[in-house]
């Protein structure tokens, strides 16, 4: 705080062009002129923030003296330049941005000659695009300060005030005299394919054809600001517009007047305000437009005349001004022509009501109000993100004495592979050796706890000396023995058939989806389906389930990233682990308590109760325990002194099975060796003999989540590579 006042927050606006035109007057002298444009109009009204605008100045400045002098001159306008040479601008902006990104983002597709050209030019344009973005990032990083924010309405007061200026009032009077006795229609657009200028002019021609009495009573003024004049597509558009305008003027014009006044240039701010003020009907026929601020500016300048706005339904402004405007489909020439007639003949009271609605919106939702709301919400988002980050476990750099990891089912380089190959992937070969070493250690017990069925666990882990817990722990066996069940006796499964019918129905109607019928649950997986369509189908499926087969059933629906699972109530990994430990200790005849636990997983929130089950800081383990606070990050986890004193160790590591859905991340548990590094759990689980099988202390329990997310685990492993490294070091420590 300065002088008892809070510091003013800085707003950084990063755009391709600065809102300033720069002309060099000498070696170190520049003439600057503030530009008029949509984004400029939107941000000029922000008064509550110290705004800085970062962008290209629009000129090539290769010499250091010129760059320094221009930087100083722009600083007075609160602008910071990014210096791009002509080649980068041509390749990055005219090439990649305008020839590739812009058409695709506006549903136009690439120009035919570009598609037929060599792809080498595309690659060079993309390389320039990357270099330009890096140059922008470097400048932003150089000027960024802690607390800065990166961020549309207009500054309506600026337009309203301009109408009172003597220069503007004089221009208004001249325009009224020039077009006396005629209704004025106005279009202000960039000469661009998406602005729909040909469609607008053709609709006006149709109106004149069908309404001959209006031919000498109305005039269309079309301001077409030239853009990208060196591009063939735009040159063709210019010729097309000129041809249509000439044909219509030749057909309906007279010696003293023509129906269309077409200008291939921009107007200054004051002249534009005057033109807005005398216009009876504004015509916006964009074929695709993000917002279109021309409609806002027109409404702001119509306080006295209360003209009519005809607005394309494909413009973003239609969402906010649609109630007061006449919405049209610009491709429907007949509809637009009819709307022109309706607007010109609209009664005064209807014009008043329509204008009032739009004027209230434009003057209320100004650029300053937008900026204040935007920055306020942005700050709230930062605070919320920080709160969420506090619930993300800290990363762990190394573990002295042990290290464990398992790998995901993608190839080593992380490249996308085809669905069939991915579904056939088995246990990673680099994992087999360390896993075998851990399984062969007599003091270590490995448990793979998975949502997958028994056959898949047998296929992938049958060769190891470990324990397998299938279907979230409902089935259990040692690889040296037979499968047994840990299911509660009162587990009802009479809902399975009806749910199966629903899953079959949606599988047939969702390409590349499949469902798995298990003994205690059903899973519908749309991992390989189209993302958006899969999500829509999953929402529809949930409605079918809740209103049908599971409306009165004792089941839970668990939603994964791209899966829907229906399982019996209470079937979670955390709920099953106590029964699993009891069975393991009973069958292995373990006499000493388990005093070290390592648990690694990539679970859905529903199954993260396994982490809290082992937490010694909780008074009693139970399913769905709320998250506990993670301990402070450590650089290394030192072997516990009691490691070699005869205690038993259990390690639980999560394996992402290649066949399982995201909610089926297996969890492998393993006993520690003699170098204690797991937290202790004070809670006792009574087995057949009634003995205590867990005696954990906090410093001897380690829980890891794989991937950055909110989790009840204590620590974070960023990727499967980290997990693999951890397991390998863990196995190596057994030999020391």
Query: How many H/I helical runs?
Result: 23
Oligomer: single chain
Question: Any low-confidence stretches, pLDDT <50, length ≥5?
Answer: 397-421, 619-650, 652-692
Tell me how many strands there are: 24
Q: How confident overall, as mean pLDDT?
A: 76
Radius of gyration of CA atoms, rounded to a whole number: 35 Å
Topology:
Elements: E1 10-17, E2 20-26, E3 29-34, H1 38-43, E4 50-56, H2 64-75, E5 79-82, H3 86-105, H4 112-116, H5 119-143, H6 156-162, H7 166-178, E6 183-190, H8 197-210, E7 218-225, H9 232-252, E8 260-263, H10 269-278, E9 281-284, H11 294-300, E10 308-312, H12 318-321, E11 326-328, H13 333-344, H14 348-364, H15 367-390, H16 419-423, H17 429-440, E12 444-449, H18 454-461, E13 467-470, E14 475-478, E15 484-485, H19 496-509, E16 514-517, E17 521-525, H20 531-547, E18 555-559, E19 563-568, H21 573-588, E20 594-601, H22 609-614, E21 648-654, E22 667-670, E23 701-706, E24 715-717, H23 720-733
Parallel strand pairs: 1-4, 4-5, 6-7, 6-9, 7-8, 9-10, 10-11, 12-13, 12-21, 20-21, 20-23, 23-24
Antiparallel strand pairs: 2-3, 12-22, 13-14, 14-15, 16-17, 17-19, 18-19, 21-22
Helix pairs in contact: 3-5, 7-10, 8-9, 8-13, 11-14, 17-23, 19-20
Structure description:
By secondary structure, this protein is α/β, with parallel strands linked by helices. The protein has 4 domains: 10-143, Glycogen Phosphorylase B (Rossmann fold, 3-Layer(aba) Sandwich), CATH 3.40.50; 156-365, Rossmann fold, CATH 3.40.50.2000; 419-489 and 571-621 and 636-733, no CATH class; 496-568, Hypothetical Protein Ta0175, Chain: A, domain 2 (Alpha-Beta Complex). The strands form 5 sheets. Strands 12, 13, 14, 15, 20, 21, 22, 23 and 24 form a 9-stranded mixed beta sheet that branches. Strands 8-7-6-9-10-11 form a 6-stranded parallel beta sheet, sandwiched between helices. A 4-stranded antiparallel beta sheet has the order 16-17-19-18, with helices on one face. Helix 12 links the parallel strand 10 and strand 11. Helix 3 (86-105) packs across helix 5 (119-143).
